[in-house]
Amino acid sequence: MKVVMIGAGYVGLTTGACLAELGHSVTCVDTDAARIKALAAGATPIYEPGLDDLIRKNRDGGRLDFSADTKGPASRADAIFLAVGTPAGANGDIDLSYIEAAARQIAPVMKPNTVVVVKSTVVVGTCRRLREVIAEKRLGLDFSVASNPEFLREGSAIEDFLHPDRIVIGADDRRAAALLEELYAPLTRRQTPVLVTNTANAELIKYASNAFLALKIGFINDVADLCEQVGGEIEAVARGMGLDRRIGTSFLSPGPGFGGSCFPKDTRAFVATGRKHRARQSLVETLVAKNETRKSSLARRVVAELGDRARGARVAVLGLAFKANTDDVRESPALSIIPLLQQAGLSVRAHDPQAEANAARHLSGVEMHDCLYAAAQDADAVVILTEWEDYRALDLKRLAKAMSGSLLIDYRNLFTAQKIALHGLRYVSLGKSASPKAAGAVVSKASKRPELATAAPNHL
Ligand code: NAI
């Protein structure tokens, strides 16, 4: 099948490369000419594990190419995917101007029976609206608009695309449903469940899913706060909860609040949609507000833990990306927390394995270090904000030696208090008793049952 992917960002590039891998002929189009030039020259403009190889393999195999011209490829396509950004707009709503512009660009050249597939996350009613946008430009043209929301996670996007929990097809006519069923046949033959419904339901499924996952994160953060006050230990509590299959272990790790290009804007848009249609989403409304205040309260906690040494203190922040295995810093907690630390008079250095260049565009006065131990040199405190494996594996002896202070604040709970104590560091983490003895009791018990000891990572 001939597919055009409009928008070669995190979703468009991954989806385009994966559809080519499934055997389709895919052209990825982007208005960012520099991005297309880089892709055509063999460079991948984003960091996503495995994407480089997948693009190279399918480009060399003749199934994947790139173009800065929309019209030519769109005029030959059976399916035109729209995977452009739908960023936050005013009052929590999303900005549909990019996707509407893309629809206007393809309308004059679409051949009859083309199916336009909305991959971007869009509020309910957008597919119908895009139908009108195209129909206004092409009176009498027979075409379909379908919704095919994307559930991949940055950092494991290829695995998620090729082995999804489910495929959601929102189609208001048989032609669109049949095309998408055929497109995904190589995956559905492998037993991936597929839900065929109408476009409005598909649009709602995406938002309701993201809002629900974000609620899990917000909930476990609240439980972590309670654990700290009453001597509980969040890992044990989350493990005990997650083993109930109705709850599940994912998204039950406390952290510095959810970030990224999806959850913050999607939860706000869900709230805005509820308000607009007089079906207020008050749970999610509260979640949105609490997620914001969490970042400021965790910044205040760094200052409080430093006590008298706070003013002028040197702090090394480890982790700028909103989650591990990506260079994406959109709405990353680090971008909120670091300026608050600076406002409190702290001097900040930072390290991230992939996201330094992206973060540097949003931060000022932050010294970036390619080596995390150089970032920690003479630091009064080290604050971990992203759950990179590099940090889980860090050489604590070397870290302690580099620092001038002894405070290690771990907002991703990568370590245990006893392990840190061995190196003479003072450990602050989330949702745990301050007493290393109590934490030890859980670890030694859990280690006898390794299958229970694994903490679920937060896949934001
Ligand atoms: P992105 O910002 O990385 O990529 C969007 C791309 O579209 C940019 O390269 C931009 O230049 C291009 N573009 C904009 N207008 C265009 C036009 N008229 N013609 C051609 N190219 C155009 O965005 P990302 O992260 O890929 O997100 C895309 C959509 O997918 C959004 O709606 C997002 O909410 C949704 N989504 C994102 C996920 C993620 O993990 N990033 C996961 C699931 C959904």
Report the bound ligands by name, code or SMILES: 1,4-dihydronicotinamide adenine dinucleotide
CATH class of the largest domain: Alpha Beta
Helix and strand composition category: alpha/beta
Which fold name is given in CATH as the topology of the largest domain? Rossmann fold
Count of discrete domains: 2
CATH 2nd-level architecture of the largest domain: 3-Layer(aba) Sandwich
Low-confidence stretches: 436-460
* DSSP helix fraction: 40-55%
Mean pLDDT, nearest integer?
A: 93
Taking the sheet with the most strands, its summary is:
6 strands, parallel
Strand segment tally: 14
Q: Evaluate the radius of gyration.
A: 24 Å
Task: Please list the strands of the largest sheet in the order they lie side by side.
Answer: 3-2-1-4-5-6
So how many helices?
21
Task: Report on the architecture of this protein.
The active site is at 262 (nucleophile). This is UDP-glucose 6-dehydrogenase. One of its GO terms (molecular function) is UDP-glucose 6-dehydrogenase activity. Substrate binds at residues 151-154, 206, 251-255, 259, 323. NAD(+) binds at residues 30, 35, 86, 121, 154, 265, 330. This protein is of the alpha/beta class. It folds into two domains: 2-197, NAD(P)-binding Rossmann-like Domain (Rossmann fold), CATH 3.40.50; 232-453, Rossmann fold (3-Layer(aba) Sandwich), CATH 3.40.50. Helix content is 46%, strand content 13%. It is built from 21 helices and 14 strands. It has helices at 10-21, 33-40, 51-60, 71-76, 97-106, 126-137, 157-162, 174-183, 185-188, 199-230, 234-242, 263-276, 282-306, 333-343, 356-360, 372-376, 389-392, 396-402, 417-421, 436-447, 450-453, and strands at residues 2-6, 25-29, 64-67, 79-82, 115-118, 144-147, 167-170, 194-197, 314-318, 347-351, 367-368, 381-384, 407-410, 426-429. The strands form three sheets. The chain has a six-stranded parallel beta sheet, with helices on both faces. Strands 11-10-9-12-13-14 form a six-stranded parallel beta sheet. α1 crosses α3 and α12 packs antiparallel against α13 (282-306). The radius of gyration is 24 Å and the shape is globular. The model is unreliable at 436-460 (pLDDT under 50). Bound molecules: 1,4-dihydronicotinamide adenine dinucleotide. 1,4-dihydronicotinamide adenine dinucleotide binds at residues 6-12, 29-32, 35, 70, 83-86, 98, 101-102, 105, 120-121, 150, 152, 154, 261-262.
